[in-house]
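User: Here's a structure from my thesis project, written as structure tokens. My advisor, Dr. K., wants to see whether a designed sequence matches the one we expressed. Can you design one independently, without my sequence as a hint?
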């Protein structure tokens, strides 16, 4: 597949949701900073008459810095151009502004899963902009335990190679793909185990399959490690017999892994 493959086009509705919440967060920060300054004005003025102005300038400087970061983030996103400030801006948005975005989303009555999906979509877009290319032994693919058939007697949470490849779930389809490219694959029961695998093996990039909640927390927790997220499909509900779009998995491998 080429760079313009339809399955990897950015969902503009998700993009608009993310941008709306991001700008709303900045407006909320301005409002909260003003309230803080007004409430503490008298107390600071009793310490020193110029202290309220000093505090005001500090708050204004911080708000301008955050605003500049958001503006540069949007520029990178729209123009699809990398920047030397890419990493600190990504940290600002994912680590500090995203939790506030969730709170603001609740005020707008935007479902949390929709916000998580928009975050994952934007994150994937940024990972593509960054132009990640790694050797097969430096790429890790993390799969959720719920991808395995729930009736299977052979649990593969410790060793994916213990899969008997009976064909009842997509693990049997993914294994040959990993082996043919020489990529490390792990099945994780949760975020803690996934982070342990990443910490032990120290990959340079990760392709992760999970639900919106786990993917979002994983992307944030693994920063600055680039994580490309693929949402699983849940025809029988969460955490049981889930599926993954194999075309997206193949595309991610072809796009991010340097062939040997």
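Assistant: Designed independently from the structure alone:
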């Amino acid at each position: 597949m080429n760079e313009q493959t339809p399955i990897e086009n950015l969902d503009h509705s998700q993009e608009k949701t993310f941008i709306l919440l991001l700008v709303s967060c900045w407006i909320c920060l301005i409002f909260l900073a003003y309230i803080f300054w007004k409430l503490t004005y008298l107390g600071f003025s009793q310490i020193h008459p110029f202290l309220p102005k000093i505090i005001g300038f500090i708050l204004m400087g911080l708000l301008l810095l955050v605003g500049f970061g958001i503006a540069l983030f949007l520029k990178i996103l729209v123009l699809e151009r990398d920047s030397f400030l890419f990493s600190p801006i990504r940290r600002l948005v994912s680590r500090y502004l995203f939790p506030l975005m969730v709170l603001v989303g609740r005020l707008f009555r935007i479902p949390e899963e929709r916000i998580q999906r928009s975050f994952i979509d934007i994150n994937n877009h940024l990972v593509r902009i960054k132009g990640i290319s790694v050797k097969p032994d430096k790429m890790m693919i993390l799969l959720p335990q719920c991808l395995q058939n729930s009736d299977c007697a052979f649990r593969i949470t410790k060793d994916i190679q213990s899969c008997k490849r009976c064909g009842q779930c997509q693990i049997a389809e993914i294994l040959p793909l990993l082996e043919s490219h020489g990529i490390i694959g792990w099945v994780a029961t949760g975020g803690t185990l996934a982070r342990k695998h990443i910490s032990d093996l120290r990959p340079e990039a990760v392709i992760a399959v999970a639900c919106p909640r786990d993917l979002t927390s994983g992307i944030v927790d693994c920063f600055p490690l680039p994580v490309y997220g693929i949402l699983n499909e849940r025809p029988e509900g969460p955490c049981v017999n889930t599926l993954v779009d194999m075309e997206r998995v193949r595309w991610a491998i072809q796009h991010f892994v340097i062939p040997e």
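When you compare it with your expressed construct, this may help: The helical segments are 12-47, 51-79, 86-107, 112-130, 171-181, 191-201, 212-221, 246-256.
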